[in-house]
Design brief:
6 strands, Rossmann fold, 6 helices, alpha/beta, 192 residues, two-stranded parallel sheet, four-stranded mixed sheet
């Protein structure tokens, strides 16, 4: 929300009271406790809805209902930007830790966006660079039957900066084309 604050008035929602406390501690005050399946804002209120790694979560019982809610709160011509984990076959210990209910493939998510009445502008995989590493990690987990742990780890600053630069490069490429496979699925859609 802080990163987006330079673009206009920003409102957020989260179902977790812990997340709300953390947001307020970080001076984010325009945030409400709510589910994406029942967004507490009026129809046609927002120019943009951003949903980053939300729809996959087990607490989102009906992701199609959430997409319909995104459309409802968008102004006509408004844009929704969505990112979520891709490929159910990539499910691993990280998914257990972060309560993943679902991972998406492109065809399935296109169908959901269509059913919600959203016009797809861009639908692509992203996070290609780390895709082989994730496959290797998932294979290792399944062979060694390791204890569930998060993929998110503290890295030395220089490695973290390198990974951020690689991800930013992929993001720039995404503005011009599509990525055929990756760890995440990225969508931009419009309310007509």
């Amino acid at each position: 929300m802080k990163k987006l604050s330079g673009y206009g008035e920003i409102w957020g929602i989260d179902a977790s009271s812990e997340a709300l406390k953390l947001a307020k501690k970080n001076s984010i005050i325009k945030i409400k406790r709510a589910s994406v399946e029942k967004i507490p804002f009026k129809d046609n209120q927002f120019d943009v809805v951003v949903s980053i790694d939300v729809l996959y979560h087990k607490e989102v019982r009906n992701d199609l209902a959430a997409l319909i809610e995104f459309k409802r709160v968008l102004k006509p011509g408004g844009i929704v930007i969505i990112k979520n984990p891709a490929h159910n076959w990539l499910r691993g210990s990280h998914d257990i830790i972060i309560h993943t209910k679902r991972r998406y493939n492109k065809k399935e998510f296109k169908t959901k966006l269509d059913k919600a009445g959203l016009e797809i502008i861009k639908l692509s995989y992203i996070n290609l660079t780390f895709f082989p590493l994730a496959i290797l990690k998932r294979l290792t987990e399944s062979i060694l039957k390791t204890k569930p742990e998060s993929d998110v780890q503290h890295l030395p600053k220089c490695i973290n900066k390198l990974f951020i630069n690689i991800y930013n490069m992929e993001t720039r490429f995404l503005t011009k084309g599509e990525i055929p496979f990756g760890l995440s699925l990225f969508a931009v859609a419009k309310k007509n």
